[in-house]
Amino acid sequence: MMSRPSRLAPTGRDPNAPRVKRDPKQLARLLAYARPYRGIFVLGLLATLVSSGLNLVFPLLFGRLIDASFLRVGSTDTGPLDRTVLALLGIFALSSLFGAAQSYLLARVGAGVVADLRKSLFGHLLTLSPRFFADHKTGDLTSRLTADVGTVQTVTSTALAQLAAQTVSLIGAVTLLVLTSPALSLLTLAVIPLVIGIAVFIGRKIRRVSREVQDRVAEANASAEEAISGVRVVQSFTAEQVERGRYGAGVLASFVASLRRARLQALMGGTMSFLTFGALAVVLWFGGRQVMAGDLTPGNLVTFLIYALQVGGTVAALTGIFNQFQEALGASGRIFELLDERSDLPEPAAPAPLTRAEGRVTFDGVTFQYGDSPILRNLSFDVPAGQVVALVGPSGAGKTTLVSLIPRFWDVTGGTLQVDGRDVRDYALADLRAQVGLVPQETLLFSGSIEENVRYGRPDASADEVEAAARAANAHAFISAFPDGYATVVGERGVKLSGGQRQRVAIARALLKDPRILILDEATSALDNESEALVQAALETLMQGRTTFVIAHRLSTIRNADRILVLDAGEVVGDGTHAELIAAGGLYRDLYELQFRREQEARAELV
User: Fold this and answer.
1) pLDDT of residue 17
2) Would 130 be classed as within a structural domain?
3) Are 419 and 432 in contact, with CB atoms under 8 Å apart?
4) Cβ neighbours of residue 215 closer than 8 Å, sequence gap 6 or more
5) With contact defined as beta carbons under 8 Å apart, do 219 and 249 qualify?
6) Mean pLDDT in consecutive groups of 10 residues from the start of the chain, 607 residues
7) Which of 116, 134, 454, 476 could covalently link to 471 via disulfide, CB atoms 3.0 to 4.6 Å apart?
8) Helix and strand counts by DSSP (H, E) for the chain
9) From CA 312, how far away is CA 188, in angstroms rounded?
10) Is residue 38 in a domain?
11) Are 192 and 170 in contact (CB under 8 A)?
């Protein structure tokens, strides 16, 4: 059996794996997701540019308003003042209108990009093999689907438009600064290179810390997800305090990383603020002297100050946008790390057709190992279509691994596994798995209705077909007893149903799928006697006419199998019927007699 990495490990990633490079080209990949919305984006960008252009007119009109007020003291002609105020109101109205349009249009683009990216990422995850999920924690993957994708939302919508808008504002404001007062412009513009240099220096540090924050949050989420999904085990071992400590340690790590990022952002913000307003103070001092000397009007000084404020605000905004891009680079690295992951179960270039399999399964020298650990060794046997084969052996013998190779949850590492005389790797995965039905020991139902769970393998099945499958699985009676019948919601993982009820729903699901090859992995081992009898009867119906592999915990349930394969340490050490294996002695008879004695002792205790 393959096992998941220990949940005591501090991270879901391989500690020896190389860190993901934060390639700026990742932003181009992100922006590709905005391509379907380019029409809306262009409209939003135009609205942003118009709004930014209108804001450049405001300081000029405001300066004229000041001059119209202060340079016409004692005059009764208010015409220039009135016209300037009306022009200002018009500018404000148009700017607000285009600003609102920009806000909505770009928000629409951002929401669409995030939805598409999440669907793309989730769809890609579903194509990856069980090996990938064995090596990654579920909480880390869901964190990338939610938090990381959300982080890049602003870059694919508002940040890019704001970058264009602020660039236009900066160029326009600097041009008007120089036209208003070349001397004052030199004082103002001298600060900009210093501001940009500091932004780039600190921004690089913010990018590194932002990636660390995302990693620490993902690790905390992974710990929480495991504890919540296994809450019964946690409570049964009174390990609540252990889990609190583990999750608390993860939260603390993310908190410490967030504080480092906050300190860097605060340092950048404080430095930018001091440089901006310090420069304005010097400009105001020097400009005031020019007004006193008559070289500059009060209105021109006010106009210059507003343009200088716009330049400072634009530089600060560009710094913030730069930080957003740095954070997005960290988050997108984690996203594209998953999108670039490739399944270790390659699809054939020219798949062999497989519409309705006969069900013959052949193992020819099959070996399998996980990492450096050999699981199966040189297995060779042929199972004709329609035969019922039971797999028996001690824990860790490789029974579940063997049946997992048939639907290609894993690929053989040696030899060939064939279905209907062709290597399973010659078939498309979807075609192969459509021929295989699985009823595991721990049945997973999804948090919808009973009908939705039965129909899971055939979404187009009619209500009559769903009911027929439920009747054949001995499930119709208990389903009909619920007030909502087939519309009854089963809860997360089917928690509202008993173990026997869940198994019968799973059997109905497999019946409706109508597979040619059936795998029963200890499907009755966790049930009481009454539930086991009902489930066993349903399984007899399900097995009719299908090639069936049965892994049974209770050997008494497989006595009537056409054939029994005895596995030990990944090898077949016995092959025959129940009677033949008992007569031959060996491991099977030892296991059977040991279990028989235990059952006898259990009955004696009940009496």
Assistant:
1) 40
2) yes
3) yes
4) 11, 13, 334
5) no
6) 38 40 65 82 84 76 66 58 77 84 82 84 86 79 78 68 74 78 74 74 78 79 77 72 84 87 82 75 78 75 75 73 71 80 86 88 92 87 92 88 91 93 91 87 81 86 88 86 89 80 85 87 63 73 85 72 90 90 87 69 52
7) 476
8) 21, 10
9) 9
10) yes
11) no
313: domain CATH number?
1.20.1560.10
What is the rounded CA–CA span in Å between residue 132 and residue 388? 32
CA distance 239 to 60: 69
Does some domain include residue 573?
Answer: no
Domain presence at residue 478: no
CA gap 545, 541 in Å, rounded:
9
Dist CA 330 CA 148 (whole Å): 9
* Residue 532: partners with Cβ closer than 8 Å, 6 or more residues away: 500, 524
Tokens representing 159?
């940040």
Instruction: Choose among 298, 89, 279: nearest CA to 185.
Output: 279
Give the domain extent around 266.
26-339
The strand pairing partners of 477, in sequence order, are none
Cα–Cα distance between 510 and 532 in angstroms, integer? 17
Q: Which residue is associated with the tokens 């300081």?
A: 59
Amino acid identity for residue 501 in this structure: Q
